[in-house]
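thread: overnight batch results

M.L. [08:02]
morning all. the overnight job finished for the chain we discussed friday. pasting input first so we're all looking at the same thing
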Amino acid sequence: MTDDAEAVLDAALEPHEPAAAEIAARRRVRDRATGLTHHEAHAALEAVLAKAGDLDSADASVRAEAAEWQRITDLLLDHGGPYAPDTDAYVQGQLTAREHHWD
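M.L. [08:03]
and the structure it wrote out:
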């Protein structure tokens, strides 16, 4: 991954009010990632990056998808098991924050 792509992915992970398309993209990634190992998640990340081409010009949902794959890949690097959104502290924190925000 290039430094430019890494900077775009880091920016996509910065706290912000995500658009509905970004939320949906992250949810799709989490669904697809459930049960995957680090190597499988990394392969999915590489496929998304190859398909996206220039992330700077990609729309927000594509950047969100790539960023979520990157985050999950990083999480699984030292996890040793398959991915599960129910045990992902980042996901659980987001869900809790959204519940409080919408209440």
